[in-house]
Amino acid sequence: MDLAPLELAVNRLRDAEAAVDAARADVEMEAVGAVRKGAPVDAVCGACGLTPHDLLRLEKTAGELPR
């Protein structure tokens, strides 16, 4: 039995999961940066989909953001 198509699909899935993780990290960093620059928490949450609780937790634990 040829498993090459399955292995290819698994590799695509792993690549997609890595891309989603990276995108999520980018969104979280940008959301924290926006709040730190004075954007309203509710507006940032509406744009990125984070809850206010999660956004404020991220803001407190993020430390210094890269520029």
Explain what the structure shows.
It is a single chain. The protein has helices at residues 4-36, 41-48, 52-61. It is mainly alpha-helical and 67 residues long. Helix 1 (4-36) packs antiparallel against helix 2 and helix 1 packs across helix 3. It is elongated and about 60 Å long. The model has no long low-confidence stretch (mean pLDDT 94).
Note the main attributes of this structure:
67 residues; 3 helices; elongated; mainly alpha
- Listing every helix as H and every strand as E from the N terminus to the C terminus, the arrangement reads HHH
Could you tell me how far the N terminus lies from the C terminus, measured between alpha carbons in angstroms?
A: 51 Å
Question: Which percent bin holds the helix content?
Answer: over 70%
What does the average pLDDT come to?
A: 94
The helix-and-strand class reads mainly alpha
The biggest sheet amounts to: none
Given the structure, what is the number of helices? 3
- Rg, alpha carbons: 17 Å
Q: In what range is the share of β-strand residues?
A: under 5%
What's this entry about, in short?
This protein has 67 residues and is mainly α.
Q: What topology does this entry show?
A:
Layout: H1 4-36, H2 41-48, H3 52-61
Helix pairs in contact: 1-2, 1-3
